[in-house]
Specification:
- The complex is a heterotrimer of chains A (about 350), B (about 55) and C (about 90).
- With about 350 residues, chain A is of the alpha+beta class.
- Chain A has 12 helices and 12 strands.
- The two termini of chain A are about 40 Å apart.
- Chain B has about 55 residues and is mainly alpha-helical.
- Chain B has one domain.
- Helices cover about 50% and strands about 10% of the residues of chain B.
- Chain B has 2 helices and 2 strands, in the order βαβα.
- In chain B, strands 1-2 form a two-stranded parallel sheet.
- In chain C, strand 3, helix 1 and strand 4 form a beta-alpha-beta unit.
- Chains in contact: A-B, A-C, B-C.
- Chains A and C meet through strand 1, strand 2, helix 3 and helix 12 of A and strand 1 and strand 2 of C.
- Strand 2 of chain A pairs antiparallel with strand 2 of chain C, so a sheet runs across the interface.
């Protein structure tokens, strides 16, 4: 008889939901929370939703297997997705498989990174993806389960088993789920996916291997300049991977902060320029040993300053969230990219 | 390959995915953050492992 | 109940087993390949010094990835394969 790992379809007899979950835990399929059984009928329903994209997937590192749509759907079913969420999950996986995303590195690293999944375009409303208050938090099925499905695919298909292939020192709650929508309705600038060359009517998923959101609290500033001082000061962190493993980061501006910045004439480009300039870290805040390591690996300072990105364009900016004077900074793994993929529906 | 004992399972899992059998020299974890005196023990162990594995 | 296996995948093409070439560690050219993490180079440097007790070290050279977080570029791996008979990788910390 074939090993269970080699069987595409497994007969688990008459196990009830508790029995299935015990079985799944034993197989190492679970993130620790209860799962739905990926029955043949349920998986078929999910596979039916991605008829607009039948391109084969590249091998998924580190495990290097080519996933079937059924295996991917099984993870989305287990995560609690609705069938109509599945094209977002498969588009997210295509983003993760962008060679510049460096999926292998982002999974095997000791860093805490997890895939940030951001949805832009009409799918946000059609799938009820939260883009407003508490958009990084709990309470929305689409946000919770799309991010969770991506995490389960990384565990089960990519093989990122914690403590084995996933070597994160401390991990990160975003490894359970980290999915939100762009708040295009309160974005005073062009939506993120349109700036990246997609049509406004396209639905797009954007992924980056990042830490969880770092809060940028500024209730006091009344000008865009004041807000950028707070944002940049909070982004200038000597402990960020990007201080030496230069790479992208994401700044999610809350709608009220965005309105102030737009009122004062800031564009996305001018915000990127200002944040890049002001978020550099002074050498006095970096240990001598680290400075030597950075320099020896080619990460040269500009005078006495170490930049947290390669260029202003590495700072990806959009708007999400609800009322309140908060924004968020999401540093990346470093050696990765921000990949955007159109959702085929 | 030199790996620390903590990262041995990662190396073996990745090697299995690539269908290679690594010749592995395992030293104590960690390497990073050690001073020269502490690192000397790792160098000693790794060199011994290399000479044994290669018959030099 | 029949369920789909969430781990199922097809083997990637080109994943056939590879045999290692024989290396004479007493004389062949060797690359000491650092993963660019702190102390990797120092570890390899220490090993190189100790190897000097029983073999020439002029043909033992250091190689490093550009970044600890990114894979070694293919051309660097090919260069190492072409120039050296063996490689010692400080790879996992």
């Amino acid at each position: 008889m074939k090993d269970i790992a080699e069987q595409e379809v497994i007969d688990i007899g008459d196990l009830d939901i508790d029995g299935f979950n015990a079985f799944a835990l034993e197989q190492g399929w679970s993130d620790g929370m209860p799962l739905y059984p990926p029955t043949e009928a349920k998986v078929a329903q999910f596979v039916d939703t991605v008829r607009g994209d039948n391109r084969p997937f590249a091998p998924v590192p580190p495990r290097q297997v080519v996933p079937t749509l059924q295996a991917l759907a099984a993870n989305a079913v287990m995560a609690g997705c609705k069938p109509e969420y599945f094209p977002v999950v498969t588009a997210a996986l295509r983003g993760l498989l962008d060679p510049d995303y460096n999926l292998h590195g982002t999974l095997a690293t000791t860093h805490s990174c997890a895939p940030m999944v951001m949805v832009s375009g009409p799918a946000r409303k059609e799938l009820a993806i939260n883009c407003g208050s508490n958009c990084f938090g709990q309470g929305w099925q689409a946000n919770a389960t799309i991010g969770r499905a991506v995490g389960l695919i990384l565990l089960n298909v990519a093989g990122a088993k914690p403590g084995e292939m996933d070597r994160s020192t401390q991990g990160n709650p975003a490894k359970y789920t980290f999915c939100f929508g762009e708040n295009e309705e309160e974005n005073p600038w062009t939506p993120y996916h349109v700036r990246r060359g997609f049509a406004p009517t396209d639905s797009v998923v954007t992924v980056m291997s990042g830490e969880g959101p770092h809060n940028l609290n500024d209730h006091g500033s009344t000008t865009g300049d004041g807000l950028l001082t707070t944002f940049a000061g909070s982004m200038a962190t000597p402990g960020a991977n990007t201080i030496y493993g230069k790479g992208p980061c994401v700044v999610i501006i809350g709608p009220e902060h965005a309105a102030t910045l737009a009122r004062d004439g800031y564009t996305i480009e001018s915000i990127q320029e200002e944040l890049f300039k002001r978020s550099r870290v002074h050498a006095s805040r970096i240990s001598k040993e680290n400075q030597e390591t950075y320099v020896s690996t080619g990460h040269m300072p500009d005078g006495d300053w170490f930049a947290i990105a390669r260029s202003p364009q590495d700072i990806h900016i959009t708007v999400a969230g609800g009322p309140g004077k908060h924004s968020a900074f999401i540093p990346s793994f470093g050696g990765t990219t921000v990949a955007s993929v159109r959702i085929a529906r | 390959m030199i790996a620390t004992e903590t990262f041995r399972p990662l190396v073996l899992a990745q090697a299995k995915a690539r269908k290679v059998e690594p010749r592995l020299i395992v030293v104590k974890h960690p390497i990073g953050g050690l001073n020269a005196q502490e690192l000397a023990e790792r160098i000693e162990t790794a060199t011994k492992g290399l000479t044994e594995a290669t018959g030099t | 109940m029949r369920i789909y296996n969430p781990t199922f995948g097809l083997a990637a093409a080109g994943g056939e087993s590879m045999a290692l070439k024989p290396v004479n560690w007493k004389s062949d050219a060797i690359a000491l390949f650092s993963n660019s993490k702190p102390n990797a180079r120092e570890l390899l440097d220490g090993i190189r010094s100790k190897l000097g007790a029983f073999r020439p070290t002029e043909n033992i050279n250091f190689v490093a990835k550009n970044s600890a977080s990114q894979p070694a570029p293919k051309d660097l791996i090919e260069e190492v394969a072409a120039k050296y008979r063996g490689a010692l990788l400080a790879i996992a910390d």
